Model the fold of this input.
Amino acid sequence: MIARSHKSTLSGHARAPGSKSHTIRAVLMATMSEGTSYIRNPLTSRDAKSSLDAARAFGAKVTVEDGVWIIEGRGKNLQVPENYVECGNSGTVSAFSSLMAGLVDGYTFITGDEQIRRRPIYPSVEAINALGGHAVFTRPGSKACPIIVKGPIKGGKVHFTGLLSQMISGTLMVAPLLPEDTEITVDNPLETPYLQMTLDWIKHHGVEIENPQNFKYFKIKGGQSYRAQDTVIPSDWSGVAFPLVAAVVTQSNVIIDGVDFHDSQGDKAVVDLLISMGADIEKDVEGGRLIIKGGKPLQSGFTFDLQNIPDSLPAMSVAAAYAQGDTKFVGLDAVRLKETDRVAVMQSELGKMGASIEVGADYMIVHGGKPLKGAEVESYDDHRIAMAMTIAGFFAEGETVVKDAECVAVTFPNFFEVMKNIGADVATEE
Done:
């Protein structure tokens, strides 16, 4: 599928879907819980459906109804998958599933799509082995799926550098269920809002984990159990970023509904980043709304550290291209290890539209304020790249054609419908 976007004027109400990160945690925590969990307002995206596939593979009974997913958990007694765990495009599902496989008394084969078979998962493999299990890569020299995991793991000491938070989260999630205590040390914790989200979900299911040293040390008592819960999934702040930036860089009067300012998702920081650049955004905390009056000049000269919000780079790159002056992004290690190297891709694809972007080993500088022209651009089958390039077309001259745009279904299945409903000049075709 391709998407064709043109200069647009936006108005009306928009709503992002439920959070991918919350949905996946909800599904897999429910799988490891005793009893029946109800997950309301789940994100019905490809990645979230991959978490359901993993839950089924480990023996949970899954019922999908309109607006609610019902999961009868297995507690710590996960079954050996009859076939394999297919994680699709989800790095989170692959990271969490690999640790969950450590609970199984048997062998589990874990794989995913082409991108997952390139994304590193070696911290999970090392953690499983440190905790008394046995995990191996199926391809010589590989640090990515497919992997084979032999459990059960017992507990022990695990060390992480901190680069890939998903593996730390997966270890935190399974550790309370192990027969022995577990200690986790982290050299340089990145993406800490995601770690906090994981801790919040663990607490929600009835287990406390102490965090005395600011995400650098955890001691988890073994022999515990999770309890099933009835939960409403909040909106996805990383998804909110795209209609938000779209409204900021166009002539617009847009209200984004259904946001939770108290949620642990780090990507809500994008709102403050844009406000600091001069965007007219009102936070209606009580009403759960963002009120945007767009089309106003943005100023830059800022340096933004994205180590805790790496998913924000594609959308913020577009805002930086619109702004007058230079915007510098640092803390990009995790950004380069997503579905694509998003630093290189945004430099390449926005560059096709006339943006001037400078990239170094540990930084990216967008020299903003240069007029953009429509162009044919690649998504690299990366959902956030596809959405970012689409909204760049909303203030560019001419037509922007985004290839392989169907990948938005990974996190924001109705993205194009939402944008059309607020007046975006965008069309899709097979």
Summary: The mean pLDDT is 96. The first helix runs from residue 20 to 31.
